[in-house]
Amino acid sequence: MEIDSLVRALSHQSLLALESSEQLVTDVLRYAQTHAKNREAYWYHKQLLPVDVGSGGLRTSPARVLHELGVATTLLTTSPLSQVARHWAAVRYCATLTRTNRGLLALTPDANEVVYHHKVTQSEQLGIGLALVVAKHVLRRQFRGWTFHAVDAEVALKAGFVEGGGAVESVSPTKKRPDYILLGHHATKTRRRMKIVILECKGTHQQPSFIHGQLARAAVQVEALSVGGRHPPSLMVASHLTQAGITAYVLDPPGDDELWSGDDAELDGLLSTRPEDRSWRPRTATPDDTQAAQIPNPPPVAGRGDRHRNRRGRRLAARRTPGLRHT
Q1: Would 243 be classed as within a structural domain?
Q2: Which of 199, 276, 285, 291 maximizes the CB count within 10 A of its CB?
Q3: Exposed, middle or buried, 222 (CB in 10 Å: 0-12/13-18/19+)?
Q4: 194 near 250, Cβ under 8 Å?
Q5: Separation of CA 30 from chain center
Q6: Could you tell me if residue 310 is inside a domain?
């Protein structure tokens, strides 16, 4: 294929199918209950909720997916070659995504034929790019006027903080971590705010039912970190990769909402640069960070209290999850 034809093909808009429903929550919960008896990877406390993903799916392009992957997985932020490094994902995976005759975003035949660990790596990497596209789409629908950028969760944990959000701490005995911390910025003439959302990304070439186990494990990962001593809301996105079309499955474990507590002058400086352009290095925690990082008692199984309020103001009865309590 000629390079100009490839570039044009990558820019073609395709339809990415989205699914989030009560039935998906039930399937994930059933999977977790079945496997929690023997594996702590399925012991989670957050209640899972479906997400308003809109109707008709999400229109995007392979180029958009690969751009998100490149930016999120390039950690050489202070290197003069960082911009070049961000293009590596697009180069490596440029022949993996295509548009079907029905206009659906899908795997290419070549991408579907990779084997063994190559397939695992491919599904993981494409899962990151797809999840970031989907998460930003969902968050734009929920929070009009907000812009979200991804920071690698392991990098933030090693640094010990995210600027504007406070100390980043591990609050779970599991060694599993979420993939990214999404920092949301919004500024108006009268009020400046910040939101933080934890994101876990999954991808698979296997049967759709495999997604249920991935999302059950993701529910443990998204509650493994605290930011500023609080538990941010989360999104979990698992993408099913096939030649017939790609479907992204989305669930929302709610948490504490707005975490910004700084003054306007501090936030003005924070808003002036993109989080992924910052140099993330470990530092000694300040007294304020240490105080903010005090870990609260773990929430009870199936959510705190007997009821939760969703973002549209309706009250939802919390699901009981027997068998998932960590004893």
Answers
A1: yes
A2: 199
A3: buried
A4: no
A5: 22
A6: no
- 25 to 28, 300, 319: CA distances (angstroms): 5, 19, 10
209 bridge partner residues: none
- Residue 191 CA to its chain's centroid (Å): 27
Per-residue confidence band for 190, with pLDDT thresholds at 50, 70 and 90: low
Q: Is the pLDDT of residue 305 over 90?
A: no
Tally the residues of the chain.
Answer: 327
Q: Which domain holds residue 188?
A: 10-298
Query: For residue 251, what are the β-bridge partners?
Result: 50, 236
| Cα 283–Cα 284–Cα 286 angle in degrees, nearest 5 | 120
The DSSP annotation for 73-87 comes to H---TTSTTHHHHHT
Tell whether the model's pLDDT for residue 28 goes beyond 90. yes
Question: In this structure, are residues 165 and 183 in contact, taking their beta carbons and an 8 Å threshold?
Answer: yes
φ/ψ bin of 231: left (φ > 0), alpha (ψ from -120 to 50), beta (otherwise): beta
One-letter amino acid identity for 284?
T
Residues of the chain with pLDDT > 90, as a percent, come to 42
| Between 89 and 155, the higher pLDDT residue | 155
Tell me what pLDDT residue 325 has.
Answer: 33
Average pLDDT of the chain, as a whole number: 77
Domains in the chain, number: 1
Give the alpha-carbon dihedral of 57, 25, 22, 26, to 10 degrees.
140
Beta strand ranges found along the chain (DSSP E): 14-19, 49-50, 58-60, 97-99, 105-107, 147-152, 161-162, 166-170, 180-187, 192-204, 225-227, 234-240, 247-252, 307-309, 315-317
- Residue 5 falls inside a structural domain: no
